Amino acid sequence: MFRRNKIPVAAVLTGLAAGLVTLNPEPAGAVSTSVVISEIYGGGGNNGAIYNVDFIELYNRGTTTVSLDGWTVQYASATGSSWQTTALSGSLKPGRHYLVKQAGNGVGTPLPAPDATGTISLSATAGKVALSDKSRALTCSSSCTTVPGVRDFVGYGSTASSFEGSPAPAPSVAASIGRVNGVDTDTNGRDFVKAAPTPYNSSVGTPESGEACSREVISGPAGLTAKTLEAGDPSGRYQAGRAVDSADVEHLVLWTDGVAEDLGVPALGANSFPSDVNGHGEIVGNVFMDGNWRGWRRRGGQFTPVTLPASALTADAVAINGNGEMAGTSFRAAYAQDGRATVWSTDNSARELTRPAGFNDARALDIDDDGTVIGTVSLLDYDTATTLDQRAVAWFPDGTWRFLNGIRPTDQTEAKAIRNGRVVGTTASGGILAWNAVSGDVTQLSPEGRPVEVNSTGSVTTTNLELILPSGVRRPLPIFDPVHGGASRVLTDANIVYGKASYYDEDLQATVAPLLRWNCGS
Question: Which residue from 66, 164, 430, 477 has the least number of CB within 10 angstroms?
Fold first, then answer.
């Protein structure tokens, strides 16, 4: 089950321990192989609530799509036999959630868009929730798990009169109970733990697996050994990287339509690497000079250091758009401290972007063709190297900006890449988020992994060596040896991916890491 990051390990251990103590175990129904109750939150709208309404969340742990037409979720008090129902509809794909919004009093954050809506007020401490494939309400107080039509059942809190095996722990105003990793052992006390609420709707789940992308090795310039491929333009015409000569000196390399060109040792210094290239073949990168890293641009065969804004000691350059505008970070203190997100125009003039109040570091990570910049602002404790707070941000060409928030209001977020107004990023605990840069609307593409790049169609490459298509289908990027691993770096609009992978060469008696191109476009 993909939700491995949802429940803290300590909470899992607490839930397991709770599941071992039960004085009056109740016979449970058959272990569900498809749709189960995955989370219950009854504190919605109360003082101190995280969300402004109660909710019940379902999860399809099976391998086939399930129709929910005619099904209901039902609720009764801890010892009661009067059940309230909420009708469900539609279908639920494997690995997907289904969010049922219930009643609330207005205090707290709104839920993500629900898949169904009811008017039930759930208890925040003890109660009973049933998932039934029937529309009629239950009438039981105990032994409810064996009633025909009941697909899954959760009794929570110590006073619950019916449950599977043993009751689940009691939630609270600020905490829900959630199923651990989708496991259903038919023991509520073992399967559920108390933790921060994390409501997911049907747009969130494990992407369906697709056919692996084809793979081929990329060659460097003659006489050099290709070492890295670190940047590429969205059209797929240009890629930039590094190669080494026989003396192990690094050269800059530009691939144009698949042909590698040796650009030599950069005049600014050999300790230099590219970070991005646009559709005109302009490269930006960074070099270690004068005791600091310094950004540069290569245009018309010439390397030019970026202009430093007033008060800046140094600056790095990480991205360039199709118009030649660059984005990066300038630093006003040594050791890459007091960062300011910065944009350089085509004439190399620098402009620092707004750093929101309450943060002492702001870093730009990408720039769209319309000039929208995305990045991350942080509140850092430099003495202890601790991140106290972190938020993804979009800065717009008119000087305005907005936070890009996570699914949960408490999530610390980080933006990674932007293309045509679609931003991808992650949270401190991992997972892949996608935002509309203008509206700030967020969806979760996957609760696992982290994004690398996004293209104009909405496809996303991830650190799990896969390409997630807009349809949700996940296409693996095959490597040579999982032990030695690999990484993707560049994604084109045609779903061509560039990167590298390592393996042990028996003939050479050494580990080698050839550059790769994965074709996921067909």
Answer: 430
pLDDT, averaged across the chain: 88
Cα-based distances in Å from 32 to 157, 185, 204, 387: 22, 9, 21, 41
Q: Apex CA 382: angle with CA 381 and CA 384, to 5°?
A: 75
Q: What is the pLDDT of residues 79-109, one digit of tens each?
A: 999 999 999 999 998 878 999 999 988 788 8
Give the whole-angstrom CA distance, residue 196 versus residue 171: 9
Q: For residue 12, what are its two tokens?
A: 């899992």
Edge-to-edge order in the sheet of strand 192-195:
116-117, 97-101, 55-60, 35-41, 176-179, 192-195
Quick one: pLDDT band at residue 32, thresholds 50, 70, 90?
low
- Residue with tokens 């009973």, as numbered in its chain: 128
Q: pLDDT above 90 covers what percent of the chain?
A: 68
Domains and their CATH numbers in the chain:
3-195 (2.60.40.1260), 263-482 (2.130.10.10)
The span from the CA of 204 to the CA of 461, in Å, is 17
Contact between 437 and 372 (Cβ < 8 Å): yes
**DSSP letter string, 156-183:** ESTT-S--SBSPBPP--SS-EEEESTT-
Closest CA to 414 of 381, 387, 382, 439: 387
CA angle 466, 471, 475 (to 5 degrees): 20
What phi and psi, each to the nearest 5 degrees, are found at residue 370? -85, 0
Residue 433 tokens read as 């988020």
CA–CA distance, 441 with 302 (Å, rounded to integer)? 41
pLDDT of residue 181: 67
| Inter-CA distances, 423 with 51, 417, 442, 490, Å | 25, 6, 9, 16
Sequential DSSP letters for 262-323: E--S-TT-SSEEEEEE-TT--EEEEEEETTEEEEEEEETTEEEEPPPPTT-SEEEEEEE-TT
The pLDDT value given to residue 209: 61
Tokens for 135?
């529309």
Q: What pLDDT was estimated at residue 398?
A: 96
More confidently predicted of 107 and 492: 492
CB under 8 Å to 248, separation ≥6 — which residues? none
Burial (CB count within 10 angstroms: exposed 0-12, middle 13-18, buried 19+), residue 474: buried
